[in-house]
Design brief:
Elements lengths: L1 H11 L1 H13 L6 H11 L6 H12 L7 H23 L3 E2 L2 E2 L1 H4 L2 H21 L3 H23 L8 H26 L4 H28 L2 H4 L5 H4 L5 H9 L2 H11 L6 H13 L2 H19 L7 H13 L5
Helix pairs in contact: 1-17, 2-5, 4-5, 4-9, 4-17, 5-7, 5-9, 8-9, 9-10, 10-16, 13-14, 13-16, 14-15, 16-17
Length: 327
């Protein structure tokens, strides 16, 4: 079912994705080749192009008449890639998309500076839209994502992290960029305020669902599918919704076991397997899936302001796929 949905989306968006890929390569163009080498290591190594595709589709559903939608869409992929370069360094990660992270292949300083270059390149393309609102969106996303990551870092290893605080963190570190891509698509198309707000609502709920699905994958996915070691979030001291909910429901002895694992980043595979049993027993995985499904429902409902179309169907399919994916 999941693979069928994925294949349908890929088939229907094949031309859009090819054009986005071409735009990403054509517009990187630094004068120093090492920048291309480092950026390309992550940029052209398995990205789904989820955010630029959302931009293109949101512009299309808003009756965009121009020819620069693919160019403008890569603002959000360059920016996303920059955040991954920075996040991998902050988290001291070793693998991204099944490959060694950039700062391990080169060095910390180079990874940071190439991330900075990609943010600058995204900003330069944003200027080409001629829309001050696009600049405002990108600036707001930068502010909120930075704060979200700092918030998460400040609460690293905090076993008392609440669901409400978790939601604030994932909204800022993940959902605002997806919301921004969707909102910006409507802006460049000259959509009405009601349509732009609907696209923003769609994007925000989609982003929340996307991150919750990611948090589920850290416990459910296979390492080969995920492209990184399962359990990475917990090893990095990140308490996500499956664990937060389970800890709130668990009997004292089980709660103590969970806290012990959380305080031991080098926990064994056996301990991690035992933890997953508790996540099932107390409903942490099921609850997270339920919350993600609810955000998908809200995302799809937000599109009700638009008439039926192939593009609307694709956006609804993308929302559904968000919670059923394996990577």
């Amino acid at each position: 079912m999941t693979q069928g949905l994925k294949q349908q989306i890929l088939t229907r968006t094949r031309d859009d994705l090819a054009a986005i890929e071409a735009a990403l390569r054509e517009n990187l163009t630094p004068y120093f080749e090492k920048v291309s080498e480092i950026a390309g290591h992550i940029l052209f190594n398995g990205g789904k192009r989820f955010r630029p595709l959302l931009f293109v589709l949101c512009a299309r559903i808003s009756s965009y008449k121009g020819s620069d939608d693919k160019l403008f869409s890569i603002i959000f992929e360059y920016f996303h890639t920059a955040t991954l370069l920075h996040d991998d360094l902050v988290d001291d990660a070793t693998v991204r998309r099944g490959h060694p992270v950039a700062h391990k292949v080169w060095d910390n300083a180079s990874a940071v500076l190439v991330g900075d270059f990609l943010i600058a390149r995204a900003s330069s393309i944003a200027v080409k839209t001629g829309e001050m609102e696009i600049i405002r969106i990108l600036a707001s996303v930068t502010e909120m994502m930075s704060q979200g990551e700092i918030h998460q870092l400040a609460r690293k290893g905090a076993v008392d992290l609440t669901e409400a605080e978790y939601r604030i963190i994932i909204k800022n570190k993940t959902a605002v960029l997806i919301e921004g891509a969707c909102r910006a698509g409507g802006v460049v198309a000259g959509a009405s305020a009601a349509e732009i707000n609907a696209l923003a609502e769609f994007g925000m709920n989609l982003g929340m669902a996307f991150q919750m699905a990611d948090d589920l994958l850290d416990y459910r996915a296979d390492t080969r599918d995920l492209g990184k070691r399962v359990g990475t979030d917990l090893r990095e001291g990140k308490f996500t919704l499956p664990l937060i909910y389970t800890l709130a429901q668990a009997a004292p002895a089980d709660a103590a076991f969970i806290r012990d694992i959380a305080g031991t980043p080098d926990f064994t595979e056996e301990s991690f397997a035992a933890l997953k049993v508790l996540l099932d027993k107390y409903g942490g995985l099921a609850y997270t899936e339920q919350c993600a499904d609810e955000h998908v429902r809200k995302a799809q409902e937000a599109l009700s302001v638009f008439p039926a179309s192939e593009t609307k169907t694709l956006l609804e399919m993308l929302a559904a796929y968000t919670v059923s994916r394996k990577t």
